[in-house]
Amino acid sequence: MEPLEGYVVVDFSSGIAGAYCTKLLADAGAKVVKVEAPEGDRLRAWSASHTEIPSGADGALFGFLACSKHSVVADPDEIDFVDRLLAGADTVVWSRGSRVAEHPSFTPEAIHDRHPHLTVTSITPFGLHGPWQDRPATEFTLQAWSGGVIGLGRGAPDRAPVHVGGRVGEWVAGAYAAAGTLASRARTLGTGVGELVDLSMLETQILSLTYYSVAFYEALGRLMRPGRGLMVPGVASARDGMVAVGCGTAQQWFDLCAMIGHPEWIDESAPFSISGRAGDLASEIAPWFAEHTVEEIRELATAFRIPNSLVANGENIAEMEQYRARGSFVANPRDGYTQPGPPYRLGSEQPPALRPAPRLDEHGEQYRAAPPAPRQAASDTAKGLPFTGLRVLDMTAFWAGPSCTHLLAMLGAEVIHIESTTRPDGARLIAGIPLNVDQWWERSPIFSSLNTNKKSVTLDFRSERGVEVLHRLIQSCDVIVENYTPRVLEQIGLDYEKVRALRPDAIMVRMPGFGLDGPWRDNPAFAYIIEDASGLTWLTGHPDQNPVEPYSIGDPNAGLHALNALLLALEHRRRTGDGMLVEAAMADAAMNVAAEQVIEHSAYGQLLMRDGNRGPAAAPQNLYRTADIDEYGGNDSWVAVAVATDEQWSALCDALGRPDWAMELELSTASGRREQHDLIDKNLAVWCGQRSAGEIVQILWDAGVPVGKVMQPHRVAELPQLESRGFYEYVEHPVNPTVRHSTVPFTLSDGPERWHTRHAPLLGEHNQEVLAGLGLSAAEIAALENDGVIGQAPAMGRGK
């Protein structure tokens, strides 16, 4: 049985975000009914390479996103017919962009009022409420507002910063919308009462493209990565092509120094920064890479345990040995081009075969002839948080795994975060706190931001006694989530079969970098390597330079897809009583949000390329320097402008006073504007350079043109839209100052009013509570502490 068999979704969305949300639901067995206006979804005529789609055919991206869905055409005034569809549904996914969705009878609030049994998931740029609710935006301008363009210091300081290519914000918003929809289902199932899930794409981008910068700055009074710079080595030029090699830790940098024959560069007393200390030596590192082949570099880096990868793109990714071995790509069921397989694997069975994307109104007659569906009577069942009563064993670290379990904790689950005193969660160690500072291990704003509402238990499961306690913990938990390299748990004999023997209905979520099998299964998989190996890096950067790693999206995207997979496994358990092994490989999740590259190349023979801050969906689209002096006394102040429609172009011309340069050429069409993009950029750069960012935003927003200020990520909490929606909450902490923490990127109409209920736990803070709950006596717990199996401080570097 598919997890969502019998679950009916009406899809009112347009664009990638809603389509990807409903694709994830359809792939899990939901019946997705796509309601289109007579002209059809705009994705039917879309190609990122601007390949002309023949009349009557559908674009390849639409064919991927719409697999297994149904299509029904409705005139916007056919209210009775659409209401019949809604009466028989469980969920609606909605976004602007279609004449049906924008009819006053079918706004999210109107649907929710008329059909209170429905979960209505709304996907909008800023959310349905707040001072910016109706402001125009694109994925590109949202990246600017989110802080994700400057983000983690991406891009050379002598040029404009670069956005993350591939419209990743759309894809991530879709995955968040699916998670919000499934969470609401868990909460409302059986009550006959739905709710409104109000998702903000701006908030999804903050969570995906910035690294908790607000909390970091407010807690420590400094930036995680001051200034901009290229990662070193990052994507480097080898003798026969490009290769990605990354140093995410000081030890990896030391190993790189040894690998390239410069041990004199190793200085364990100096603070490490991949864009600082390593960046200073970039000119001396590059020649070594240029003298070696990609294969030689990768063999050496692998031997030194330095993360590395080929640089994937739409042309080469499907032929990479790991993905061939795992069958990571499949043929589109109708047109045969190559597309990614599922972003996660549920159980040991093969996923059900995909059905071809529907032709326009292919199922219209079927639904028009269907009798009205009976409505479920509403009950008075009280609604708690979606996962109240769910117990989760959180064996994760850094960003990817904890981001999955953090959402569960904020949604009500009891999450027990496992660390050890000899190996604390790495997120505790990356804030640059000196080891002589009192309780330095508690002071990381990154750890704090990822672990509120959780409990902490320390446990050294390398010892026999530690393994025994771990087994008892597993018996008490509904879910186990881990993101170690595959061999770690195998070394202590803890695979899914062992978990199932301890608790037959347990769900085990494993989050390896590249999967549990294949030649790359044991390769280190930091976020940037996943970005390199999936194509996410390929589309990021200026066209005359090597690609630039996003250095962000790889981790939270993996956690988000693992969460979706877990929610489907919970639905499977609810229906069958059975547990499940979930394999949520980071690379599989990344390849899905980078799917358009391989689809375009396979379907049309077009290799999508990075193009700085331009993009396929808007022209002009770029960053323009303003007259502002930034907060550091420099001129690194920018605005993002994106003209997505001819109407917006006309509005931009009006806002500029209809200058001669804009009137003299054929710029009224997108193709004409793309041809003259350099000219437009030159003139917009002059206009913006004479004005402040605030003035530019006011003029263009009032005219209806998408625009965004390129925010420093530590300043985004000051945006009035986020203040209005309560996206940031102040969290008190027994060691650290009270600072603002981000929450979840959607609001639920039935609350809660506050997401953070408890500060991130101190190391081992809940040892006594949790272990006593397993039946261990006070003497047994004391013995575990005396033997170093548990503890409340790192085994070394304990400070005062």
Give a brief outline of the structure:
The chain is α/β, with parallel strands linked by helices.
Mean pLDDT: 94
Distance between the termini: 57 Å
* E-strand count: 24
User: What would you report as the Rg, rounded to the nearest angstrom?
Assistant: 26 Å
Low-confidence stretches: none
Structural class by helix and strand composition: alpha/beta
Our count of helices gives 30
Major beta sheet summary:
7 strands, mixed
Strand order of the largest sheet: 3-2-1-4-5-6-24
Shape: globular
The percentage of residues in β strands lies in 5-15%
Q: Which percent bin holds the helix content? A: 25-40%
Topology diagram in text:
Elements: E1 8-12, H1 16-27, E2 31-36, H2 60-65, E3 70-73, H3 79-87, E4 91-94, H4 108-114, E5 119-124, H5 139-146, H6 168-188, E6 196-200, H7 201-209, H8 213-220, E7 234-238, E8 241-245, H9 250-259, H10 282-290, H11 294-303, E9 308-310, H12 321-326, E10 329-331, E11 338-340, E12 345-346, H13 364-369, E13 391-395, H14 400-410, E14 414-419, H15 445-451, E15 455-458, H16 464-475, E16 479-482, H17 486-491, H18 496-502, E17 507-510, H19 527-534, H20 554-576, E18 580-583, H21 586-593, H22 595-604, E19 621-625, E20 638-642, H23 646-655, H24 660-664, H25 670-675, H26 677-689, H27 693-703, E21 707-709, H28 720-725, E22 728-731, E23 739-742, E24 746-748, H29 767-773, H30 778-786
Parallel strand pairs: 1-2, 1-4, 2-3, 4-5, 5-6, 13-14, 13-16, 14-15, 16-17, 17-18
Antiparallel strand pairs: 6-24, 7-8, 8-9, 10-11, 12-18, 19-20, 20-21, 22-23
Helix pairs in contact: 1-6, 5-7, 6-7, 6-20, 14-20, 19-21, 20-21
